[in-house]
């Protein structure tokens, strides 16, 4: 060796002076695994990627290109996006969806992003799965009929929800001046918005004489019905809500309202790091199979380390930039980056946390296929276990453990 003797190199390695360029670096705090993980354990040449690349695409996934040293093992991909989903565009609006076919980890729910122009109609239909929705923009008029023959017509706006149990017929229509956009979640990962039961489709595939018999009118009544399903079409904007409600009032209203204003609820957690607002069957009583939370995280802040013992978490990122790390058995840990329009997924009881990595508020919707929301806080668990026992696990002074949050803050500052 010219510049250094073998003894000198060993001495430098022992002090950590060349650890970053030494693949054999010992495990340590923030870098726990053997064999060691992450670029911190490799030379610049070892992590170089001279092969074919798409820099714009790679730039969207910094945690995949340079994962933290704490990532370990394999994990089913928990990132997807509406941004890469194909849009079905028709005269009155458009829709795009991500089902389990596109996002294999998402077994519990599937999602649809839809826009309707002012007057645009998602035709009268029903599903094999329950439909839960969150309004992200504009105004929409919904119609609904329950199994007892009770009807509902309601207008919803940004921050509002609706819920239709499986098999219950309904329709959606955009209102002026800007129409509407919303997120739909089905309580079945395989449910497709492109495979629904449509009123036009059924009538077109029923003999005219049978239609005449069923409705008690001449067969000629149906001579002009569409022979292809409408799905989304441009209709005339409806009149005042009160007029539509008056026309169906005789049927009586459903026992439990099928709409709910999530945006106006009192936050279940709120501090300088952000806020959490929630709706499940305890507050939105009609929603028997879906619980949800809208989460706002300030720049630099973090959604605390936690898990959900009763359901998988499906996420829809509405605004900002975030990074989520998911921890599973194995050990397995993986980190991914999210932006507006992206989807995340965390399996039941897997630990996780989300950090705001941008300069604006990070806003996302967390959806669960369950009647009631449940969460376990890691900090709360450690703070509410005998300190001597926790100290033996973590080698932390019990006096320091006493400072751990024990009030389930939900969000923690930078």
Describe this structure in words.
- The protein is of the alpha+beta class.
- It has three domains: 6-65, no CATH class; 87-260, Sandwich (Jelly Rolls), CATH 2.60.120.10; 265-376, Jelly Rolls.
- 15% of the residues lie in helices and 34% in strands.
- The protein has ten helices and 25 strands.
- The strands form three sheets. Strands 2, 3, 4, 5, 6, 7, 8, 9, 10, 11, 12 and 13 form a twelve-stranded antiparallel sheet that branches.
- Strand 19 (321-328) and strand 20 form a beta hairpin.
- The radius of gyration is 27 Å and the shape is elongated.
- The model is unreliable at 1-24 (pLDDT under 50).
Give me the secondary-structure topology:
Elements: H1 6-15, H2 44-47, H3 55-58, H4 62-65, E1 79-81, E2 88-90, E3 93-98, E4 110-116, E5 120-126, E6 131-145, E7 151-157, E8 160-164, E9 170-174, E10 180-186, E11 197-198, H5 199-204, H6 208-215, E12 232-234, H7 241-248, E13 259-261, E14 269-271, E15 274-279, E16 291-297, E17 302-307, E18 313-319, E19 321-328, E20 332-339, E21 342-346, E22 351-356, E23 362-368, E24 376-377, H8 378-383, H9 387-394, H10 398-401, E25 411-412
Antiparallel strand pairs: 1-21, 2-3, 3-4, 4-10, 5-9, 5-11, 5-12, 6-7, 6-8, 6-9, 6-10, 8-13, 14-15, 15-16, 16-23, 17-22, 17-24, 17-25, 18-21, 18-23, 19-20, 19-22
């Amino acid at each position: 060796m010219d510049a250094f003797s073998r003894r000198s190199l060993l001495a430098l390695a022992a002090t950590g002076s060349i650890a970053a360029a030494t693949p054999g670096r010992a495990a340590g705090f923030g870098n726990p695994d053997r064999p060691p993980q992450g670029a911190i354990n490799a030379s610049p040449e070892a992590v170089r990627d001279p092969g074919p690349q798409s820099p714009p695409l790679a730039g969207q996934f910094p945690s995949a290109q340079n994962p933290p040293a704490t990532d370990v093992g394999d994990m089913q991909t928990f990132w997807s996006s509406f941004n890469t989903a194909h849009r079905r565009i028709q005269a009155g609006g458009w829709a795009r969806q991500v089902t389990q076919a596109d996002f294999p980890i998402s077994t519990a729910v599937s999602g649809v992003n839809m826009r309707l122009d002012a007057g645009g109609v998602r035709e009268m239909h029903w599903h094999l799965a329950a439909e839960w929705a969150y309004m992200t923009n504009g105004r929409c008029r919904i119609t609904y009929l329950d199994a007892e023959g009770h009807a509902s017509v309601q207008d919803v706006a940004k921050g509002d929800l609706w819920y239709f149990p499986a098999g219950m017929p309904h329709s959606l229509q955009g209102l002026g001046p800007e129409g509407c956009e919303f997120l739909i979640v089905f309580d079945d990962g395989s449910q497709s918005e492109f495979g629904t039961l449509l009123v036009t489709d059924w009538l077109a595939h029923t003999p005219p004489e049978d239609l005449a018999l069923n409705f008690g009118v001449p067969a000629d009544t149906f001579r002009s019905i569409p022979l292809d399903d409408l799905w989304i079409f441009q209709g005339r904007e409806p009149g005042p809500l009160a007029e539509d409600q008056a026309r169906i009032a005789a049927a009586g209203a459903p026992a439990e309202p099928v709409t709910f204003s999530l945006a106006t609820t009192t936050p279940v957690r709120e501090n300088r790091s952000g806020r959490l607002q929630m709706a499940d069957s305890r507050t939105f009583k009609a929603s028997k199979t879906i619980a949800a939370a809208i989460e706002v995280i300030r720049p630099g802040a973090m959604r605390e380390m936690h898990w959900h013992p009763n359901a998988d978490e499906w996420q829809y990122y509405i605004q900002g930039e975030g990074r989520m790390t998911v921890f599973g058995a194995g050990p397995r840990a993986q980190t991914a980056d999210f932006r507006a329009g992206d989807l995340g997924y965390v399996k039941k009881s897997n630990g996780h946390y989300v950090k705001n990595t941008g300069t604006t508020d990070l806003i996302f919707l967390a959806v669960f296929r369950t009647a009631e929301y449940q969460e376990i806080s890691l900090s709360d668990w450690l703070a509410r276990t005998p300190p001597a026992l926790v100290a033996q696990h973590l080698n932390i002074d019990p006096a320091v453990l006493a400072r751990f949050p024990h009030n389930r803050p939900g969000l923690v500052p930078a």
